[in-house]
């Protein structure tokens, strides 16, 4: 038997293939951690997209004076989902010293959304418009401070 055949036995070939797969599963995540994660969108991206749709639907419902619809949307806006813990930690690590501002904007949007819901349940159009403006103001302030840096850091957009 040739020495080459003794080196590449089926058992050794399978073991080498398994080691390659295992090494790749350990090394690839470490390499990917340094680059923006474009393959899998962040949960925050989906949450923001859904909030945008709810805000547009609320604008429409306000224009039609559909207060029950406004109340439903306001509750969803105020109590929007949060990213998973691991993603939240990545985000807070990124915002660093601005964490209090980031959390403050979210709290302002939550509180304004709750006020919007209460006003809609009362059918108070003037209070609805005021509370909706407060939600928009909190969203705008957060987006002006964080949107571009987030996109650049987490999605590699220039």
Secondary structure layout:
Blueprint lengths: L2 H5 L2 H25 L8 H21 L3 H12 L6 H11 L3 H24 L2 H31 L3
Helix pairs in contact: 3-4, 4-6, 6-7
Q: In a nutshell, what does this entry contain?
A:
The chain has about 160 residues and is mainly alpha-helical.
The major pleated sheet works out as: none
User: What is the ordering of alpha helices and beta strands?
Assistant: HHHHHHH
Helix content: over 70%
CATH fold annotation of the largest domain:
Four Helix Bundle (Hemerythrin (Met), subunit A)
Rg: 25 Å
Structural class: mainly alpha
The CATH architecture of the largest domain can be named as Up-down Bundle
Number of helices: 7
Number of domains: 2
Task: Report the CATH C-level class of the largest domain.
Answer: Mainly Alpha
What is the end-to-end distance? Answer: 60 Å
Q: Would you report the number of β strands?
A: 0
Tell me the β content: under 5%
Shape: elongated
- The CATH superfamily name of the largest domain is Cytochrome c/b562
């Amino acid at each position: 038997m040739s020495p080459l055949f003794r080196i590449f036995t089926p058992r050794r070939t399978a073991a080498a293939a398994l080691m390659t797969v295992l090494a790749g599963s350990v090394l690839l995540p470490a390499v990917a951690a340094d680059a923006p994660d474009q393959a899998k969108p962040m949960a925050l991206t989906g949450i923001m997209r859904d909030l945008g749709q709810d805000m547009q639907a609320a604008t429409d419902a306000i224009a039609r004076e559909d207060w029950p619809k406004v109340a439903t949307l306001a509750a969803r806006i105020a109590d929007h989902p949060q990213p998973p813990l691991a993603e939240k930690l990545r985000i807070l690590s990124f915002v660093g010293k601005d964490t209090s501002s980031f959390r403050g904007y979210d709290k302002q949007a939550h509180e304004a959304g709750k006020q919007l819901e209460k006003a809609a349940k009362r059918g108070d159009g003037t209070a609805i418009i005021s509370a909706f403006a407060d939600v928009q103001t909190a969203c705008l302030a957060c987006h002006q401070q964080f949107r571009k840096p987030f996109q650049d850091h987490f999605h590699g957009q220039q």
